[in-house]
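Two folds, back to back.
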Amino acid sequence: MLFNQEKNQTPKVVELTNKNDMKIVLTSLGASWVSCILPLIHGRRDVVLGSPNMDKQKEQDVYLGATVGRVANRIANARFSIHGENYSVSANQEPHCLHGGQDNFSYRIWAISQPSTQQAIFSLISPDGDQGFPGELKVEVSYELTDENQVIIRYKHQATKACPVNLTNHTYFNLAGEGSEKTALDHALTIYSDCYLPTDKAGIPSGEWRNVTGSYFDFRQSKLIGRDFLQDHDQISAGGYDHTFMLDTARIDGRQTVASLSAPEGDVKMNISTTMPSMQLYTGNYLISVAGKTKSYTPFSGVAFETQFPPDAVNHPEWGERYSPISQPNQIYCSETCYQFIF
């Protein structure tokens, strides 16, 4: 692994291309995915939201394309205990910890290597006590663009102490194009999930796993995201969908599809597969005048699919080992998520 911790470096930008002339653009600022350009019949289309330049990417606080960590999503009251030891971490969404704290991984400059035109590897060392978390953590995130038009993101990490680690990617997709007037609500979505996690207004789960049957959270058959939008208390309190779906356990092998998104015109489809047990669906409810590549982004300009352990899982051991984010010392942990584009 290559590691580099200098904060004031200029972020590097790299491009990956495949034999079909598909291209993705990545930056060492937050190990972020900032463009995804599909060579469609009617021209090239960028289907991920991103900043117009690196200065704006540094300023934005909505995690455009970023690798999120140490712990994605929320930790209630920014507190947890492991083996009887209590920890307080950065409370950047008072009183809770969101996406790893005030100075989380999306703001760091990662070291980068590019072994080929179709792969880039980012790495980072998070010191013991970083944002209040125990143990030194080494992280490696690789992006591969395959000739099957897949973007495969692989995560590898190792900690020196028992510590929660929950890494994800926070790219927002708009398959109609990042500058389109069409929004997330105009896309059709399928999610292979029987349960979702209700939360309070701050996004903290109650602990209940609620069956999607008969609810507006049932995406087991493809439907427009906007069809049942803001029709229930759970959505109204979050301003839209910002909820975790517990994925069908038979599908979380990294190969089978756990979710599919279709463009409004049906000309682009994206299939997601992952080895992670749950996925946050976020409809960009708080994209308020965010500087984008071709326009200012507003609520619902894009939709994020954050594959991860469930929010606040460190405080819910009753959910079981499969859903626990706690990494044991000196073990190497790996996970991956694949976004395949069909056009």
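---
second:
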Amino acid sequence: MAPVALDTSAPVSTPPPFKQDLSSLSKNPLQRTYRGNKEGTIHMEGIPQFDDPYQKREWVKEQLAIGFQYWGKEGYAEGLSGHITVRDPVLPDHYWMNAIGVHFSAVTTSNLVLVSPDGFVHPDGAQLPINEAGVQIHSTLHRARPDVQVAAHCHSLHGKAWSVFGKPIDVMTQDACLFYDNLAVYRNFGGIVLAPEEGANIAAALGPHKMAAILQNHGLLTLGQHSVAEAVYIFQSLERLCKVQLMVEAAAANGLEKKVIDDEDAAFTAATLQNPHNIYANFRPEMELLKMERGHLFLK
């Protein structure tokens, strides 16, 4: 067959980018993420609710121990550094915290410390010392952000590496939309945090609504509105995205062009991903796996 000449002069029609909106979707962000049966009797559960503050206290402590053991599993432990705090449901001006020098993988409900409003160990929890920098950061954060229950900070590898640039991550992937208009950068390093002013500066950088921060030359810090699971999931997501950013920057330095998600698509995706119940549901598989693997050791 003789070759056929192709007309390459005709313009190629490119369809416009497909855009979604929330108008036809469920008003409940969690319900957008799963499908049950036609009868509507199959549901995915969000954050549990409690009428009894003492029952909620036990749940909070279990969540906190699981969060630390997950951090240990991920290799985030580094000497005396790292802390997660969560408000106590019984005494809301107090918070629970890990003892200093206890490996993340060894944190259980029985060695958690209750911290008083003035930053000292309370008699109701484990009678163990706590991290001074953690008290300075978290006490200030809990006062500055009454909308959050949890604050989490440690020196994870990729978070530390990206923090030296003093820049936010780019919203380049679907999971990065969790941080669309939701990530602060604290562009200062004043040394190890041993004064309340530094905690106040970090709180100011976060502002009234952001749930995560990159602390320049230091690491990552995340918050949770209702549960430890939120702060831990947001932390591990940001840590992994810092690794992605480092990989992308290395590729871009060799001539590859990176594509950033536009504001419209990022905002649409963030409206679902940033919902506290969705964040909790995203971390729930890790919590259930830890229970299976460790036989409820975190409850001891």
